[in-house]
Design a protein that fits this description.
Helices cover 38% and strands 17% of the residues. By secondary structure, the chain is an alpha/beta fold.
Length: 269
C-alpha cells in the first residue's frame, strides 16, 4: 500500500502547488511510482506547473461520480514515466466532494502507487478536510513571514482533528517546508530565520527552499525546477524527496551560499 502525503499551507501564495509538483517529480526521478492529485477544486493550477494542462480530458470529480474510469483520468507525465497526475475540476466547487467517495478514490490510488501526493486547498477552506482526511503525512509549506507562519500554526493545530488517523487514536506525521528564503535578508534581520520559524511551529523540518527566479521561469515554460541542476530550489526539492523516502540528507547551506554540501550551523546538530 502506498503512502498518502498531503501538501498544505495556512494561506495561499506560499508555493504549495509548486512544492507538490516538484516533490512528486523528484520522487519519480528516484524511481518511485507517484501520482499527484489536485484537490483545489475550481482553482486548479498544478496542471500548469507540471506542463500537462493541454492533456486533460477527465478530472477527479468525474472519477468519483462514476462518469469515467480512473485510468481514463490519469495523465502520465511526458518525461517521468512513473509520474501520473489527476486533475481537479475547474467547473465545479468544493462542496461536491464527499468523504466516502474521496476515501474510495484514494484507496484505489494507494493500491497502484507508492506515493500519493495531494495538493490541498490552502488554509481550512472547502476541500481541506477531504485532502487531509486520509493523510499519512502532511507537509506544511510556509514562507518566513509572520502572517504565513501564524496561519501555518493554525493549520498544524487542526490537521489531526480532521484526519481519520486521529479519529482512530493515531496521528498524522507533520513536516515543515520553509519556502522562499532570502538569505541576505535573514542575515540583515529583515526576514525570519529558519530557527525563528521552527521555534514557533515546533514540528520537524524537511526542507529549506531559497527564493529562486528559476522557479518562475520553470512555471512559465511548463517545466518543474527540480529538473534544473543549476537551481538551488531544484536541489532543495530533490533533497526533500530523498528525505521522504527515508534518507538522511544535509540541508542547503544558506549562510554563505558556497554550495550544497554544508549544513546550517547549530540548527541541525
Amino acid at each position: 500500500m502506498g503512502e498518502i502525503i498531503t501538501v498544505t499551507s495556512g494561506k495561499g501564495g506560499v508555493g504549495k502547488s509548486t512544492a507538490t509538483a516538484n516533490i512528486a517529480t523528484a520522487l519519480a526521478m528516484l524511481g518511485k511510482r507517484v501520482v499527484a492529485i489536485d484537490f483545489d477544486i475550481g482553482l486548479r493550477n498544478l496542471d500548469m506547473i507540471l506542463g500537462l494542462e493541454n492533456r486533460i480530458v477527465y478530472d477527479a470529480i468525474e472519477v468519483m461520480e462514476g462518469r469515467c474510469k480512473l485510468s481514463q483520468a490519469l495523465i502520465q507525465d511526458k518525461h517521468q514515466k512513473s509520474l501520473y497526475f489527476l486533475p481537479a475540476s475547474q467547473t465545479r466547487d468544493k462542496t461536491v466532494l464527499r468523504e466516502d467517495k474521496v476515501e474510495a478514490l484514494l484507496n484505489d490510488l494507494k493500491n497502484d502507487f507508492e506515493f500519493v501526493l495531494i495538493d490541498s486547498p490552502a488554509g481550512i477552506e472547502g476541500g481541506f478536510e477531504h485532502a487531509i482526511y486520509l493523510a499519512d503525512t502532511a507537509l506544511i509549506v510556509t514562507t518566513p513571514e509572520v502572517s504565513a507562519v501564524r496561519d501555518a500554526d493554525r493549520v498544524i493545530g487542526i490537521i489531526d482533528a480532521k484526519s481519520k488517523r486521529a479519529k482512530e487514536g493515531g496521528e498524522v506525521v507533520k513536516k515543515l517546508i520553509i519556502n522562499r528564503i532570502k538569505p541576505e535578508m535573514v542575515r540583515k534581520g529583515q526576514m525570519m530565520s529558519a530557527e525563528d520559524v521552527l521555534q514557533i511551529l515546533a514540528i520537524d523540518l524537511i526542507g529549506l527552499v531559497v527564493d529562486d527566479e528559476m522557479v518562475v521561469v520553470a512555471t512559465n515554460t511548463g517545466e518543474v525546477v527540480v529538473k534544473n541542476p543549476k537551481s538551488q530550489s531544484g536541489e532543495a526539492y530533490r533533497r526533500i524527496a530523498r528525505r521522504v523516502i527515508g534518507e538522511t540528507v544535509p540541508f542547503l547551506d544558506l549562510q554563505n551560499q558556497k554550495g550544497f554540501g554544508a549544513m546550517i550551523k547549530g540548527l541541525f546538530k
